[in-house]
Amino acid sequence: MLIRDMSDSRLTDAYGIRYQQVYPHGGEDLADWGLGRAVIPPGGETEPHDHHEEHEAFVIVSGSGVMVIDDETRPVAAPSAVLIPNGSRHQLRNASATEPLVFLSLYWPPAMGPLDL
């Protein structure tokens, strides 16, 4: 059994926000899939970026925001999940001036199978 502490003290700066690589614990180079926990402070946002070698899903745990994927922009709020196909430029913005936006990031290679869109 593997149990990881996901308290705020485990967060570090990454992607313009606070982030913790949960699995694989030793870093993204250990596996082609992974799970991370992220916190966007009030009014904050992730750096716009893309992943050409992996799909990603954001599971919004608490808070609300604005999700931008390529040229599409939509509001998101907990509880919800967002699927981000590989190669898509994306950014998540916290819409609140007072509450953090917390989400889990899951990523995996396209070779693991097609997306169900």
Number of helices: 0
Number of strands: 9
- Give helix % range: under 10%
- Secondary-structure element series: EEEEEEEEE
From the 3D coordinates, which CATH architecture would you assign? Sandwich
The main sheet comes to: 6 strands, antiparallel
Q: Given this structure, which CATH class is correct?
A: Mainly Beta
Radius of gyration (CA) equals: 14 Å
Spatial sequence of strands, sheet with the most strands = 1-2-3-9-4-7
**How many discrete structural domains?**
1
Strand portion: over 45%
Protein name: Methionyl-tRNA synthetase
Keywords: Aminoacyl-tRNA synthetase, Ligase, Metal-binding
GO molecular function: metal ion binding; methionine-tRNA ligase activity
Pfam families: Cupin_2
Provide an overview of this structure.
With 117 residues, this protein is mainly β. The protein has one domain: Sandwich (Jelly Rolls), CATH 2.60.120.10. It is built from no helices and nine strands. It has strands at residues 12-14, 17-23, 34-40, 55-62, 64-69, 72-77, 80-84, 90-94, 101-108. A six-stranded antiparallel β-sheet has the order 1-2-3-9-4-7, with no helix packed on it. Strands 6-5-8 form a three-stranded antiparallel β-sheet, with no helix packed on it. It is globular and about 40 Å long. It starts with 11 loop residues before the first strand and ends in a 9-residue tail after the last strand. The relative contact order is 0.25. It comes from Streptomyces eurocidicus. This is Methionyl-tRNA synthetase. Its EC number is 6.1.1.10.
